[in-house]
Amino acid sequence: MIKVAVAGCFGRMGGAVVNAVNAADDMQIVCGIDLKADRNTDAFPVYHEVEEALSSIDVDVMVDFTQPTTVADNVACALSHGVDCVVGTTGLSNAKLEELAAKAIDGACLFFAPNFTTGAVLMMQFAKAAAPYFPEAEIVEFHHCNKKDAPSGTAMLTARLISEGRGGISSTAPGSETELDEAKGARGALVNGVPVHSVRSNGFVASQEVIFGSLGQVLSIKHDSWDRESYMPGVLLGIRSVGALEGLVVGLENIMEL
Ligand SMILES: NC(=O)c1ccc[n+]([C@@H]2O[C@H](COP(=O)([O-])OP(=O)(O)OC[C@H]3O[C@@H](n4cnc5c(N)ncnc54)[C@H](O)[C@@H]3O)[C@@H](O)[C@H]2O)c1
Predict the structure, then answer these.
(1) pLDDT digits (tens, 9 = 90+) for 95-138
(2) Which domain holds residue 177?
């Protein structure tokens, strides 16, 4: 039995992780960590802080779906206890992830996935494969109104992969110099040379469309997550995989059989 702690257990994603772990035969929730620790749950103890939890309970893996301002401290604490981490909270830079992983003890692993859905991982791989053949590429991402960061971690990574895949091709599309003074931002945010547009609206969970253009043709790659359950197979795979991994691992594609 893998002993799992969930940081952010009362949140939208953390709650879905609790349900998914409870439904799996090879793992169990041993505790939660959440600012709302005074909420009642008979099923497992909930602590305010990671330090308090890990000094009280034996944990193999901590899953973190909290918020960008909290995740670094949570992960630093868990790794300093030698506890493997599966992290979905976005907003950590690559440099910060490396700094955190460098302080892990006892071979603990920091596994971070900006997106735990298999479909989004494939969308990014397809986008990277298409990039050398299309000079124009733009990303439109759609999320619910409670998302705290823009652009999404998935959009940031997709832009980086397109840029890596481009192989010297450069876009001829007009940029921010064509924006009207009264409509700055109309051409999106430029991330690694790729315009990214963030839509925030009720009705969405997480969707993204990558649009490639060249003379006379457009290729569009679209992925939609309509339910947080779509992330759970990836999170459970992360929980099952980290015991055999060490140091920093970024991206579900590293543990998925592609
Ligand atoms: N990687 C992915 O596939 C993926 C998918 C969806 C969401 N996310 C990210 O996951 C994170 C959480 O998303 P959500 O929609 O579940 O958010 P949410 O606001 O519903 O839940 C966050 C939970 O964390 C708790 N929390 C906040 N600060 C805390 C702290 N200091 N200590 C302990 N608990 C704390 C809150 O009380 C809340 O219960 C966000 O960063 C989001 O972008 C990642």
Answers:
(1) 999 999 999 999 999 999 989 999 999 999 999 999 999 999 99
(2) 118-225
* Per-position DSSP letters for 226-253, written without gaps between them: -SGGGGHHHHHHHHHHGGG--EEEE-GG
Burial pattern 236-256, b for ≥16 Cβ within 10 A else e, equals bbbbbbbeebeebbbbbeebe
Whether residue 234 contacts residue 116, with contact meaning beta carbons closer than 8 Å, is answered with yes
- Ligand 1 pocket residue status of 12, Cβ below 6 Å: yes
Q: Is the pTM of this model over 0.90?
A: no
Judge whether 243 and 60 are in contact, CB under 8 Å.
yes
The answer to whether residues 158 and 126 touch, using CB atoms and an 8 Å cutoff, is no
**What CATH number does residue 135 fall under?**
3.30.360.10
- Return the number of other C-beta atoms located less than 10 Å from residue 108's C-beta: 24
| Atom from ligand 1 closest to the CA of residue 9 | 39
Question: Rg for the chain (alpha carbons), in Å?
Answer: 20
Kindly name the residue from 3, 81, 143, 148 that is annotated as catalytic: 143
Ligand 1 centre to CA of 67 (Å) is 5
Residue 61: which CATH number?
3.40.50.720
